[in-house]
Amino acid sequence: MTRQNYTFTSESVSEGHPDKVCDRISDAVLDAFLAEEPEARVAAETFATTNRVVIGGEVGLSDQDKLHDYMERIDEIARACIKDIGYEQEKFHHETVEITNLLHEQSAHIAQGVDAAADKDEGAGDQGIMFGYATTETEALMPAPIQYSHAILRRLAEVRKSGQEPTLGPDAKSQLSVVYDGGKPVGVSSIVLSTQHMDENMTSADVRAVIEPYIRETLPEGWITDATAWHVNPTGKFVIGGPDGDAGLTGRKIIVDTYGGAAPHGGGAFSGKDPTKVDRSAAYAARYLAKNVVAAGMSERCTIQLSYAIGVSEPLSIYADTHGTGDVAPADIEKAIRKVMCLTPRGIREKLQLNKPIYERTAAYGHFGRKPSADGGFSWERTDLVEDLKKAI
Description:
Blueprint (H helix, E strand, L loop, with lengths): L5 E8 L4 H19 L4 E9 L2 E9 L3 H8 L2 H12 L2 E2 L2 E2 L4 E8 L2 H7 L13 E8 L8 H18 L6 E14 L2 E14 L6 H15 L10 E4 L15 E2 L4 H4 L20 H18 L5 E8 L8 E5 L8 H11 L4 H8 L33 H7 L1
Parallel strand pairs: 3-6, 9-10
Antiparallel strand pairs: 1-8, 2-3, 2-11, 4-5, 7-12, 8-9, 12-13
Helix pairs in contact: 1-3, 5-6, 8-10, 9-11
C-alpha cells in the first residue's frame, strides 16, 4: 500500500547559482556545435570560480577546419551566457572574467564504440541506467515539490530581469516542504528561499517583503497558511553570489534537474552532452514514456528504467513500475513500450528530434515539466504516444 499522508521536500536553484552558470555555458557550447552540424559530438564541462571560467572536454565536427573556427567562439559564448544571467559583480563580470578554453577533439576510442557501420545502428555512447517518472499530482505530470520550487525561482528571475525588482541578484535557492493528504499535495509546511540581493542594507525581513508576493502568486491557492514556516535568507546578508561566492561545476545539480528526489536517478548528468550520450537522451526518452503512460490513464504514477551498454544499440532492459496506482500490469507496459518506440540512441534522437540546438534553455529550472516548443525544445514533454500505447496493450 502506497503511503498516503506525509511531507516531502524538494529544492531548486536559480540560473545564477554557480553550478547552473556552468550548466548554462556547457549547454550553450553544445548548441553552437549542433547549430553547425546536427551530428556534432560534444561533451563539454565547465568550472567557475572568482573571476575565472574554465571549459574543457571533447568536441567533434566532420570538418576539422570548422572545428577550429568554433573553438575561437567559445569565449564569446561563455560571456554571453554570463551577461544574460546578469552577473556584473566586481569579481565575476561578463566583460572581465578570465575564460580558459581547454576543449579538444573527441577520443577516437570513444567514437569507435558509438559510430555505426553503414548497415548497423550506432551503439550507446556509454553504459548506464536512466530513469523517467510522471505523476498526476500536477498538470505537468510532475512531482509538486520540485515543480513549484522551480516555478518560484523562474518568477523571481522574471521580475529581476524586467527591472521590476532591481534589488534581487541572480543567485538564489528555493525549497518547499509539501504536505500530502490522501496521496495528493494540499499545502506547504515550510518555505525556504535564499536570494542574492544588491542592497547591502537589506535584512532578511526586507528580502521577504520583496519575494513573498511572488511566492504567494506562484503556489496554488490555500497552500500557504498561518502554520506555514518561512525561512528567507536565514543566514542574513547574501550580497556576494554566484561563482565569486562559491565555485561551480557542470553536472552537480542532477536531482534539481530531474524530479527533486521523488524518483530515482541513474547518476548521469545532462548538460554539455550531445544526444548520442544516453545519460541525456535516454533519460529524456524515459520521461517521455512515463508521461505518456500516465497521460493515457494507465496509472497515476509511473517510473520507467532503461539500461544501456557502450557500443550496443538496443537497451539491455526496460522496467516499468506503476507503484500500485494502475490497472495495467507493468509487464504489459514494458511490452507496449518496445512496440511504440525505437529505443536505440538513433531511434530516440529521431523520435524526439534531439539533434537540434535546443539545450541551453534546459540548463535551469528543470529539464522536465516544461512546455514543448515549436522548434523541438522539450519534445520529450509531448503526450503524442497515448493512443499508440493504448493500442499496444
